[in-house]
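Project outcomes to date are best conveyed with an example. Our students and postdoctoral researchers have been running inverse folding experiments weekly, and each run begins with a structure described purely in tokens. The record below, which covers 106 residues, was selected by the lab manager from last quarter's runs and is presented without edits.
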């Protein structure tokens, strides 16, 4: 199952919601939305600094991740970044593939 690293920053409105619900309430909400699309939450951590929340999510396909991302962004409660995570084997496979590429000016 494809994995995604999610880095999120709460907006002021989202932070108000977090303060009302608590971290466990937000964890339950994340579990619910991810499971609803056939995924799982591998890890979820709250942080401070540039990011307020960091998650590793497993989804059956990238389209499911995109659906969640669109809904979350549309809410206005969070600014998020989703990074696909690849295994060592996947990178090894990518390195073996022949790519016909010419850099600019070459």
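After processing, the design step wrote out the following sequence:
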């Amino acid at each position: 199952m494809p994995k995604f690293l999610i880095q999120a920053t709460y907006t002021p409105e989202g932070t108000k919601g977090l303060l009302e619900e608590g971290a466990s309430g937000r964890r339950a909400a994340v579990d619910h939305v991810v499971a609803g699309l056939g995924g799982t939450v591998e890890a979820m951590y709250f942080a401070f600094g540039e990011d307020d929340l960091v998650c590793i999510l497993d989804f059956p396909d990238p389209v499911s991740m995109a659906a969640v991302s669109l809904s979350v962004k549309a809410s206005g409660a969070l600014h998020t970044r989703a990074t696909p995570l690849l295994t060592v084997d996947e990178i090894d496979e990518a390195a073996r593939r022949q790519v016909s590429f010419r850099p600019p000016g070459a």
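Helices lie at 12-36, 62-75, 88-96. Residues 97 and 103 are 18 Å apart (CA to CA). The training component of this project remains on track.
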